[in-house]
């Protein structure tokens, strides 16, 4: 069972790291295993137990990174997976 409070804090930490860490962190974050885990959270109807606010926070992290100056091509994989 997912602890939503822990998930919220984890996403806050991830958001801080995405904003403040460099290219190497983004490469690690964009590996296929991490992308697969992210897309599980974002699948429509895939996991109804995850609150919308947690899903929205994850999408906001992706969007902030997309709009930042340190955007890398590796996050295109995540965005493409979400669109499918």
From TrEMBL:
The lineage of its organism: Eukaryota, Metazoa, Spiralia, Lophotrochozoa, Platyhelminthes. This is VHS domain-containing protein. GO terms for molecular function: clathrin binding; phosphatidylinositol binding; ubiquitin binding. It comes from Protopolystoma xenopodis. One of its GO terms (cellular component) is endosome. PANTHER family: GH05942P, VHS DOMAIN CONTAINING PROTEIN FAMILY. Gene3D superfamilies: 1.25.40.90. It holds the Pfam family VHS. Residues 1-63 form the VHS domain. It comes from the Eukaryota. GO terms for biological process: signal transduction.
